[in-house]
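U., I forgot to send this yesterday:
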Amino acid sequence: MGKLDGRVVVITGAARGQGEQEARLFVAEGARVLLGDVLDEQGESLAKELGDAARYVHLDVSQEDDWTSAVRTARESFGRIDGLVNNAGILRFNELVSTPLEEFQQVVQVNQVGAFLGMKTVAPEIESAGGGTIVNTASYTALSGMAFVGSYAATKAAIVGLTRVAAMELAGKGIRVNAMCPGAVDTPMSNPAQLDPAADPAETSAALGELYRKLVPLGRVGQPEEVARLALFLSCPDSSYITGQPFVIDGGWLAGVSIF
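Result:
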């Protein structure tokens, strides 16, 4: 028996990183998943690997028409939707006063508007299925400042706020809504060197690990599989009395920084 047997879950940004690991884990736990992303080749390859339990759809989360199409594909493929994991997001590094408006708005469109459209579009489907779960991906930076990620932190703080509002409005419809707040996680978004075909994956991960070794009390960078397990917890009956909450998963980073 899997923790998600019979469930149908939409996962965005599912072609790689945290979304990929969430898709793999959810299928292993009995779910059927709709994988949404703009990385079509990688997304289609993952869906093929996962077999009949997965379908891929091109989904630009900032576009409402793409969400409508994704919901239609999920219904046609699996008959219903029981859950949503709003995982898609982008990160841009820039000093606040040097950030172009266009760059700020791009991050808002993907991270904040994307999460909003996901909940707006998918929540009625979850209600029709008899209830379920929504898991939004916020960030450690939503709860603690970090220099040079102003646009990213602003959108992630907004997601925490949206999560609380959605939890209050959707509780009566049988839908629980929570947010994950990851710290440093070894994914292509936080470690772009992974995308360099000439780079050694072990070396790039080691470099990122060294960066956070002294910052994070647990002494290491997080792995996407660890975030996926939190997404599973929030999407299954193990968290049946939890809604409207931000869950920090950061190796203790928010607790403080050691001087040793």
